[in-house]
Amino acid sequence: MAAGERAAAVPGHVVVVGAGLGGLRTIERLRSDGYAGRITLIGAERHPPYDRPPLSKQILDGRWEPERATLRDSAGLADLDVAMRLGTHAVALRGTTVDLDDGGSVTGDAVVAATGLVPRRVPHQPDGVASLRTLDDALALRKAFDFAGSLIVVGGGFIGAEVACAARRRGIEVTVLEALAAPCERVLGREVGGLAARLFQDAGIDLRLETRILRMPDRHTIELADGTLLSADVVLASVGGIPDLTWLGGAGVRVQDGLACDARGRAIGLEDVWAVGDAAAWWDPVTGEYHRGEHWSTTIDHASRVARDILGAEPPAAAPPYVWSDQFDLRLQVAGRTGGADEVVALHGSGLEDGPVKGTVAGYLTGGVLSGVVAFGAPAPFMRYRALVASGADRSMVLKEMAR
User: Fold this and answer.
1) The predicted structure's pLDDT at residue 6
2) 3-class SS at 336?
3) Hey, what domains does the chain have and what are their CATH numbers?
């Protein structure tokens, strides 16, 4: 394709729906790569774009005020020359026209869906049970902690663990209810998830595994399947999220577990529509399936690749997934693919042999290749093995690194 033809294909107006990390980074990459057209940013929240990881960490425990989590304030957005529609929900998509809940609409030449997730609810969850997804959620929970002596967290994933840690630092008694056999099992697997369980218990948290909730009579009370009644001043539901895609319900696309996209982020079945972040299920050529990854680094990667594709330029190579969680006075880091591994091996430390959890690094081998790595408070060795994951190192290369 000739240079002139390439330039003619660049859309004159890009509409980004979702004013979080994915939407903002897409805009920033468009501008840094020379895009001079119009951009409109639509955001359901009234806040300017902010970073979500601090919500369950620095914001919740009071070390940061909300402004420190802001990614770009009004002046920063003005520097990007972006038309803002904050505090406005998208309700429908017609071609490349986005209809809004205030009765208006925005029509562009390209649309980027970056609407993220909404909290999943526990079955029959009553009103008043806390959730943690937005800045307002974090501030409300922080205020509730000022008066709480007890907390029940439903869900032992990363967010649940971080909230439990913040509560324990404030002297709140914490019970965590987890349906699986180990906390964070979906990411870590059962064996390595057992190390995470030890961290909960060492912190004085009442961790109850393989627990099924029968009902929640009110916002303070939970009845378990075995008849046990639990109550607390605050109950938090932290059982994952659902892609926020109801506004695409009439667009004729697959949205059940994320908006299905090809490997460049183009929505399947739609013209001139891309998707990034937690709500996007991109085609994964490794697994031959659509995959939705709820990771900060995945969102950054999506944004960079979509911006390049919109501009008709070659996208950067996909980076291996990476996620981290600050909990129990250490950083838990995960790189690569940990699901479906044939074998879990101890790369560093002795946590898998009942030694200290801190300093342990576990490797996940799939078909003899290091597909993933998890570290508990071991940043230096983690970086070495993360590089091996990115390079597709086989068992012999891993053994050489272990012998260093």
Assistant:
1) 41
2) strand
3) 3-118+241-310 (3.50.50.60), 121-237 (3.50.50.60), 329-402 (3.30.390.30)
